[in-house]
Amino acid sequence: MTIRVEQDSEVTIVTIDRAExxxxxxxxxxxxxxxxxxxFERDDKQKVAVLTGVPGVFSAGFDLKWxxxxxxxxxxxxxxxxxxxxxxxxxxRKGPMGPTRLLLSKPxxxxxxxxxxxxxxxxxxxxxxxxxxxxxxxxxxxxxWGVPLIxxxxxxxxxxxxxGRAMDLILTGRKVEAEECLVMGLANRVVPDGTSxxxxxxxxxxxxxxxQACMRADxxxxxxxxxxxxxxALAGEWRxxxxxxxxxxxxxxxxxxxxxxxxxxxxx
Length: 268
Known about the structure:
By secondary structure, this protein is α/β, with parallel strands linked by helices. It contains eleven helices and nine strands.
């Protein structure tokens, strides 16, 4: 089994387990990853997912040995995108690395140990948050072999780190250590080696404590605003006010009763 799925209370943990190939993802694994995250999306009991690899390696990217054997026209046609593509779960499309074309309604946290390079970096960029170990690193290593970023890398990387930094990484393919990833926003947390999964699960469990409809609405508004002008983005954001009726009034009442004063996140 090269893709493992486990549940820890309301957190789904998806693990890439092919250490002998540095967690390189082949088409069967991509399909398994895709299906794992569709199942997570459709399970109302699961609130946050964590994507990780076996200790010491997140993913070295797409399986180039498989590609060298001949990624034929059928494979390319399978991943072609037509004008109906909108990224939503009502028209799910599988990317070469699996879930990278899905726009889920719930957050995913990447727990990164060792390399997250080439397509593995694109998987990491797809996550909402990235927890990296001190010795972990990223990089567009596929630059060396004439393999382009076709799984969201040229779209998500500039949006996360800015155009100038993205051009540096895309053009040079250089190694980016965890501390530099933290400085440029590629990593959200840097933790000691061997602790990324535990730290990511702890972070995921923190997110499960919040009123979910409001958090998800804010998350999707932040994602969707990229394609909109400010006026349309503000109109889209305002639709999130509907969640106030479901969650916000009760939350306001808890605050009025004395909860959460001084920024306390304890009893919410």
